[in-house]
Amino acid sequence: MLPIVLIGLLVITMFGAAIARSLVSQSKHARRLEYQQQAAWLAESGVQHASNRLANEADYEGETWRIDSDDSGLDAVAVVLIHVEQIDESDGGRLVTIEALD
Length: 102
Prior knowledge:
The structure is a single chain. 58% of the residues lie in helices and 25% in strands. By secondary structure, it is of the alpha+beta class. It has one domain (2-101). It has a three-stranded antiparallel β-sheet with strand order 1-2-3. Strand 2 and strand 3 form a beta hairpin. It is rod-shaped.
């Protein structure tokens, strides 16, 4: 009788551990997706910010744009690196590179 009870407890413990691992994995995955979405929003905001600056300042070369958590609704300060380089002097073409940092 005792071996059956021990085997039953072992099976229940294994199921519990598997469920706990699954929940932790799902939580990490959800957090990673949230960070990816935030990075996409920050990158889009960086493009708009750079576009506005270029419209007003022809010699704008980029910046490290810090967004306070109070302004963004994020948990921490957001940092967006904006780099602008001229690719064709004849028509004023520019390449804008945006990088959202965590």
